[in-house]
Amino acid sequence: MARIRTSRLGSVAPAARGDSGFTLLELLVVLTIAALISGLAIPIFAAASPRLQISSTAAEIVTALRSARRLAIAQSREQFVEFNLSARTYRLSSERARREIPARFGIELVVARSEVPKTGIGRVLFYPDGTSTGGHIRLSLGALSRKVAVDWFDGSATARDE
C-alpha cells in the first residue's frame, strides 16, 4: 500500500492559496472614508429637504400641545403652551426650557385675545376637562406651509399641509 503525505492545513499549502482577507489598516481606511462621506451627506440631505424640516417642527409643536393637554387633565389644573414670536421659541408652562423654531420659518400665531399677555407672546391654554382656548400656528417656508391647529372644544392638536 502506498502512503500519501498530507499537511495538517489541508492539501494545499498556505502560500499557494494566496491572501483572501483584508488587513486591519485596509478596513480602517475604508471605514474612515465611509464615515466622511456619510458625515457630508446627512447635512446636505437635511438642508435639501425643507418639507421634512417643516413637518418635523410642526410635529414637535403638536407633541408639546398634546403634552400640555394631558398634564392639565392628569393634574387637574390649567396648563399652557406659550409662543414667543420675537424670540422664535415655545415652552410648556410646566417646563423652564424653551424650544426653538428655526429662523428660516415664517410664523403666524392666532390665539384667543385673553391669551396674549404681551405683544409677540401668545398662549394656548388647556383646562382640566381637556378643552382649550384653541388657536393655530402656521409655519411657512417659501411655498410650503404647515398649520398646527388646536380645537377649543376637545383640545385636540393636529398638523396638516396647506
Structural class of the secondary structure composition?
Answer: alpha+beta
Report mean pLDDT, rounded to a whole number: 87
Level of helix content? 25-40%
Low-pLDDT windows of residues: none
What is the radius of gyration? 29 Å
Structure write-up:
The protein contains three helices and eight strands. The chain has a four-stranded antiparallel beta sheet, with helices on one face. It has a four-stranded antiparallel beta sheet with strand order 4-6-7-8, with helices on one face. By secondary structure, it is α+β, with helices and mostly antiparallel strands. The N and C termini lie far apart (90 Å). Strand 6 and strand 7 form a beta hairpin. It is elongated, with a radius of gyration of 29 Å. The mean pLDDT is 87. It has helices at residues 14-17, 24-47, 50-75; strands spanning 79-84, 89-92, 99-100, 106-111, 121-126, 135-141, 144-150, 157-161.
SSE topology:
Elements lengths: L13 H4 L6 H24 L2 H26 L3 E6 L4 E4 L6 E2 L5 E6 L9 E6 L8 E7 L2 E7 L6 E5 L1
What's this, in brief?
This protein is of the alpha+beta class. It has three helices and eight strands. Strand 1 (79-84) and strand 2 form a beta hairpin.
Describe the structure using short key phrases:
about 160 residues; alpha+beta; four-stranded antiparallel sheet; about 35% helix
